[in-house]
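User: I'm curious whether this sequence folds into something compact or stays loose and floppy. Could you predict its structure so I can see for myself?
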Amino acid sequence: MKFELHTAEQDERIIYITGNFNRWNPRDQRFRLTRKDINQYFIEIEDHVLPGLVEYKFTKGGWENVELDHQGNITPNRKVLKSAGTVSDTVEKWRLNWGPFKAEYFPIAEIISDKFYIPQLDRYRKVWALLPYDYYTSDKSYPVLYLQDAQNLFNEGSDYGNWEIDKKLSVLTEYGRGDVIIIAIEHGSDDRIKEYIFDNDHVANGSEGKKYIRFITDTLKPFVDRNYRTKKDRENTGIGGSSLGALISIYSGFLYPEVYSKLLIFSPSLWVEPNNNFPMMNFKVPFRTKIYLYGGAQEGSKMVKRIHAFEESMKRWEEKHLFDCEIRISINPEGTHSEFYWSQEFPRAIEWLYYNNIENPVEVKPTQDSIKN
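Assistant: Here's the prediction. I'll summarize afterward.
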């Protein structure tokens, strides 16, 4: 079957076709189009690869760069019978790094407290809640994700930029994947390293990670569950962060698997635990835990190696029936240790952690599933 494509916008990026024939992988090298002219592309796919009814879309290599209509809106999945032989399509516009973002879907950002008391550490911290845009006009209850380093998650003016999770949540909402409450805890500035190191005085003298984890689990979560419409069970509770914030989130999930079932782990500082000697609670029947583990190949020579070593440790623990996990590895060949790349990865992680039971895109709202391993 032959697919011909005309693009209204001139753009040098490679174009891919994705659909129900390749599990909606948006950057499948087997399905990149050939350029015929300035705005003309084509691809021929062998019939035995395709189902009778083909559903598909065109991308520039990811759901953050998927096709849009002339008004910048998400387009329905294209559909054609394999028996058609040849089909000609036009793409009016392309999404660029998840944009444009629609203000009507932005989450509601609330300050839970400028000075939330941390009894375990006898200090105070600013804590935010990002609520779904329709939180106050609905009666729904929502899953929750606790994230570290709130200063770098959505506020403008951060020294290192930010993840833009407010914008990314608006995109997820547009796709029908945005019903999540984010609780964002600001880091402790000069105390950040001590709070995010679990128990390693060689790295941080007087490390306070144990107490910090207890604060989130024993103090903050009960407060959030009392004051917001949350789904309180472990199946709907996750924790995550980047760098040292990712590291302390790993400890949180392993020490309190009865509380957290989802770990969002971006560029973790695994150099602190090179042998992956993480303490774990011992249960006769291990809790099932989902781990989304992202790293950039440009973060240093050992980042990707440590991520795969961590994965191998998980597998060995599973073989010994000490752990039960579903792990997703995502490596960006171009990724550096920065908010820009964590921002790009955030929607993929949210969808896989909280909406992975939806295997294929819904009819008019494709999944932001990351590249299949």
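Summary: The two ends are 26 Å apart (CA to CA). The longest strand covers residues 108-118.
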